[in-house]
Amino acid sequence: MSKIIELKNVNKWFDKFQVLKDINLEVAPQEKIVICGPSGSGKSTLIRCVNRLEEHQEGNIIIDGTELSESTKNIEKIRAEVGMVFQQFNLFPHLSILDNCSLAPIWVKKLPKKQAEEIAMNNLKRVQIDDQAFKFPGQLSGGQQQRAAIARALCMEPKIMLFDEPTSALDPEMIKEVLDVMVDLAKGGMTMIVVTHEMGFAKEVADYMIFMDEGKIVERAKTKEFFDNPKSDRTKLFLSQIL
Amino acid sequence: MNLIAKPSKDNIKTYVPIGLFLVSLSFLDVFVNAFFNFNLMGFLPSQLSYFLPLILGYIGFYLIRIEFSGVRSLDILNKNINSNNFNALLTLFTIFIIIKSTPPMLDWFILEANFVGNSKDDCTGDGACWVFIKVWFNRFMYGLYPDSEQWRINTAFLILFTIVGISFFVSEKLKKYFILFLVFVFPFLGIKLISGGSFGLEYVESAAWGGLSLTFIISAFAILFCFPIGVILALGRRSSLPAIKYISIGFIELWRGVPLITVLFMSAVMFPMFLPDGTFIDKLIRVLIAITLFEAAYMAEVVRGGLQALPKGQYEAAKSLGMGYWRMNALIILPQALKLVIPGIANTLLALVKDTPLIFVVGLMELAGMIGLAKTNPKWLGMAMEGYVFAGLVFWVICYAMSRYSQNLERKLSTER
Fold first, then answer.
1. Residue B219 burial (CB < 10 Å; 0-12/13-18/19+)?
2. CA angle B262, B264, B270 (to 5 degrees)
3. Edge-to-edge strand order for the sheet containing A191-195?
4. B182 Cα to chain A: minimum distance (Å)
5. Closest C-alpha to A75, from A54, A58, A90
6. Contact A92, A173 (CB under 8 A)
7. Helices marked H in B196-327 — which ranges?
């Protein structure tokens, strides 16, 4: 089976501290992977390496046949194909929700303004905030902002979506509306890597679970197996604490 | 017994009228004294009559200081100017000083001032001699620019103000072309019109330019150029490429560390010595370049402040959407960073306008320079006060307008709730 994401022996250091240790990971198209683990285990760093918001120092990362290297052209091409959703939403506060969504299609993909706005409206409809299109991010609730951020990423029509703890900064009652959108997206066949502590969500959509600790992938298993029959003691301990 | 009780809601009916009466009496005393030179309390010993308004006002304010009186206006008054003894005294002093200083100011500016006449001898009153400004007005506006050619300056500024005026009323799309014209075409058109030398216009050398029109020309050009240069330097200073980064730092620190007056002197006197023989750059242009680069260094640091205030997430979000360095900065980073530092930008530009008088060191005379020249004219000696008050007023009007505009812009661009 062809792989859309391939990480081979990836190592990364912050100064002398090694955050990623010999990471190997393969993701097939349409697969959904959930990464969990204690804080500081390198989960966020791992997915940020996938679109090179962080630079890895050793190993290879190959996205959809293109290897991530120093070349800015490669990086920009890959970033246009890989959508990312952040913990802090990171919407552009000086632009309306519609402009947030249509800006990158217009300037990066060079679509005509009208077409870009059409795509933006469709995606906003998909996450059910098309009625907020002309408001500014500061006027929306946290849940609405995160859904807008998902719509913004979708407007680039990415092949892969990365989620970096998308619900961690939300009020409890807004978590569901965001997870619903993500479940919907998963069912639509998107390739997804999600860093999250929402185990209910993981059980529902993930094909594989990955457990990380101290920069290493400790366990990689099918979702059912991972929850019912974890192999390593570290995973067992982690699961017993959060479930 | 009742009279020495602490002011409270119970005795509000007696205390407030007495208090207000005492406060009014103290103001009346100072007012009559200042405006009619008559001492109401003259029958008292001199020291006592001198301090009496203060004592009366102080007691009066004490009596009306009633917390939660239930009378809205009284509560507002107490909260703002009479919250404790010290504030009551401050209030009294401030009001006394305003009342006391009004008559002499009025006398000097208007009542005793001289408005008619053509020479210093017509100024017989004790107040200001505004005749000085009237006679020299033309020079203060146009410097030594020939009278017969002044219509050219007028036309240039008229075109400028007309375009700016119209651009407030046209659609967004047309506005864009207006702004492009103003930034890229008009400056050169205007300069050509004022300097002449072609199209049958007589050539007027830049040494003859001066007065307020020169203030405007220098300010406008320096603002126009220092802004983009400042932005590029700010980006350069944060660049990840060491060469660009250290060149930017070097440039900024060099220009920031040197006084403007030195820079101007060097640009006019020393710089030509390094040029090959026969090359000649107009003095005004050299001065313009010097001011522009000098202010650009300050502008760069202001803009850098805005860049640093933006959360890292904005950069990451822009990158994750596939934007490259220039698109990210032009579309996401700079619009937000510049909006954040509008007050700082306004500050720098105001300082720039007020720095223009320094060009006198190289012999160019804008408004303040022309006034300095006029006051040394043997026929008009002793007119420094009128001249500099006038200059101060004109600069204040210009700077206040700029300040209001920046506040307006800040409000308009705000997307907060």
1. buried
2. 85
3. A82-85, A160-164, A191-195, A32-36, A208-213, A216-222
4. 26
5. A54
6. no
7. 211-237, 242-256, 260-265, 271-274, 283-309, 312-320, 325-327
If contacts are CB pairs under 8 Å, which of residues 46-105 in chain A contact chain B? 51, 53, 72, 76-77, 79-80, 82-84, 86, 88, 90-94, 103-104
Contact status, residue B163 vs residue B187, Cβ threshold 8 Å = no
Contacts of B350 (CB under 8 A, 6+ apart): B399, B402, B403
Which residues on neighbouring strands pair with residue B362, listed in sequence order? none
Q: How do beta strands A32-36 and A208-213 pair?
A: parallel
- Which of B230, B190, B235, B234 lies closest to B213 in space, CA to CA? B190
Whether B96 and B30 have beta carbons less than 8 Å apart is answered as yes
User: With an 8 Å Cβ cutoff, are B415 and A136 in contact?
Assistant: yes
| Residue A1 confidence class, pLDDT cut points 50, 70, 90 | low
Element (H or E) spanning B210, and its range? strand B210-210
Q: Is the ipTM of this complex over 0.95?
A: no
The encoded tokens of residue A15 equal 């100064």
Instruction: Read off the DSSP letter of residue B310.
Output: S
Quick one: which of B378, B373, B349 has its CA closest to B210? Answer: B373
B42 in contact with A, Cβ within 8 Å:
no
For the segment B308-342, what is each residue's pLDDT rounded down to a tens digit?
Answer: 999 999 999 999 999 989 999 999 999 999 999 99
pLDDT in tens, A29-70: 999 999 999 988 999 999 999 989 998 899 999 998 888 887
B8-19 as b/e: b if 16+ CB within 10 A: eeebbeebbeeb
Q: Tell me the residue length of chain A.
A: 243
Block means of pLDDT (10 residues each) for chain B, 417 residues, are 67 86 91 84 79 89 85 88 90 92 88 81 81 85 84 88 85 84 86 79 81 91 92 94 94 92 86 75 86 94 94 94 92 93 93 90 87 86 87 93 91 74
Interchain contact, A90 vs B313, CB within 8 Å? yes
